[in-house]
Design a protein that fits this description.
The chain is mainly alpha-helical and 170 residues long. The protein is 68% helix and 7% strand. It contains seven helices and three strands. The protein has a three-stranded antiparallel beta sheet. A hairpin with a 7-residue loop joins strand 2 and strand 3. Helix 1 runs antiparallel to helix 2 and helix 3 packs across helix 6. The chain is elongated.
């Protein structure tokens, strides 16, 4: 984020206070900064994906990632959607593209015809094996300048914020 973005976020947070004297301007600023940070992180990961030939990649790479790190080497569609915290319909669409590109294969469950296994093909494994070190380096670099204790504390704060968001009433 640039200094001008920081200023705009502070201004936007104060605008709430100007209209609503009861507004918690510090919480509002926190959430606005977090949203801006999330946008910046998505941008940096998308640039990484683009450099590796993955346009429109976030969902595709996410599926490759959960399958690559899966202890069993395969997962069913429901497990993938739960792991990625997206809808099953979204995963179906992504899987169709990955299967069409030869990066995943779907096979029927041995005993439950309602379940289909998904696993990486050799090409899918090779693609993610090439991408994983670059992703590891990028994600690690985002924590530069923080001590390990600060990272743990920050993660605790983010978890509490996530829980607050999930329990917030409209």
């Amino acid at each position: 984020m640039t200094d001008s973005t920081d200023d705009l976020i502070a201004i936007a947070a104060r605008q709430y206070l100007e209209k609503f004297d009861w507004a918690d301007v510090k919480s509002i600023e926190l959430v606005l900064r977090l949203a801006a940070t999330a946008t910046s992180i998505r941008g940096s990961t998308q640039r990484l994906f683009n450099a590796h030939g993955f346009e429109r990649a976030a969902g595709r790479v996410g599926v490759l990632r959960v399958l690559y790190f899966s202890p069993k080497g395969r997962m069913n569609q429901n497990e993938i959607s739960n792991e990625m915290q997206v809808t099953s319909a979204n995963i179906s669409y992504v899987l169709e593209g990955l299967e069409r590109d030869g990066l995943v294969a779907r096979t029927p469950h041995e005993t439950d015809r309602r379940v289909t296994w998904v696993q990486l093909t050799g090409d899918g494994e090779n693609v993610f094996r090439e991408l994983a070190p670059a992703m590891t380096a990028l994600l690690g670099s985002l924590g530069e300048g923080f001590t390990d204790d600060e990272k743990v504390l920050f993660a605790t704060f983010l978890e509490r914020l996530r829980q607050n968001a999930e329990s917030a009433k409209p």
